[in-house]
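ARCHIVE RECORD
Type: protein–small molecule complex
Small molecule: zinc ion
Source of inputs: curated submission
Record status: active
Notes field left blank by submitter.
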Amino acid sequence: MKILAIESSCDETAAAIIEDRTKVLSNVINTQIDLHKQYGGVVPEIASRLHIENISAVVEKAIEDSGVSKDDIDAIAVTYGPGLVGALLVGVSYAKAFAYALNKPLIGVHHIKGHISANYIENPDLKPPFICLVASGGHSHIVNVKGYNDYEALAKTRDDAAGEAFDKVSRVLGFGYPGGPAIQKAAESGDPLAIHFPRVNMGSGSFDFSFSGVKTSVLNYIHNAEQKGESINKFDVAASFQEAVVDVLADHLINCAKSVGVSKIALAGGVAANVPLRNRVEQKASDEGMNFYFPRLSLCTDNAAMIGCAAFAEYEAGNISDLSLNAVPNLAL
Ligand code: KG4
Ligand code: ZN
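STRUCTURE (tokenized, with ligand):
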């Protein structure tokens, strides 16, 4: 079975052809990052307009690269939430028109289920149950993946997402957008133990996150130094901030998995591309005798291959959408 998948929830226009859940026949990503960079973050109106301009070419290229003809496509999958409403609408409208024209089933896919499913593409032997940390620009969840289409959110962020904190701190330090890779690079030249930024623990058995405190603490540190006329070492700030976030993400993931007695853990989402985070989780997992899975970097950030993979589980569960499918910006898991 071959699925054409489309993703346009944020600042990547992407299309892919996936065969039998994990085989990627093509995976085309058109990123808008360079255009949003000059504004320090994603501008929703610009994102929507660029998706409209690029989507046809991206889908045509995905079909061409796969060597599959349009008639051989068995279903069309598309991200319908969560994400930016105008951006999502472009993919959803395009997928609906495509499914209608080819008379093929349409499958609406949850973006977070897509991120988690990237792990199956990377590790076709991985089977549920496992515990997955999903950390991206908009989400920080710990999810119990009980089955291919059975998800239970065990923890979430109470305020900012981890990626959002990386982006904000990077902006104030002048390292630019997207913040994650910029902070990671800057941190290589800094001391992670130079400054102690707070690690928030909710206590009472909760593994929820809160990143607004660490973000504010970094801002206060910078402002205090400015007011006193002191200079700061930006690289130390980047490294110490990253250390605080990595500490919390890794600890909560491992402790949450231990609390439910699951010994397979995985990472997903843009922040899962963070190398110190991967290394830390790998070390802790090995200390605890847990098996650890993570997608390659290009499958961590937004792409359509992961959406196609997640669509198989929806299809197996009989979740076919009709042409009334709409974008749902705050779609729950
Ligand atoms: O999953 P994604 O591509 O889009 C959303 O669904 O949000 O994630 C983008 C987020 C951004 O906040 C970006 O700064 C962060 O992932 N990110 C990273 C790294 N690469 C991307 N964060 C930390 N370290 C990285 N290497
Ligand atoms: Zn994403």
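CURATOR ANNOTATION: The chain has a mean pLDDT of 97.
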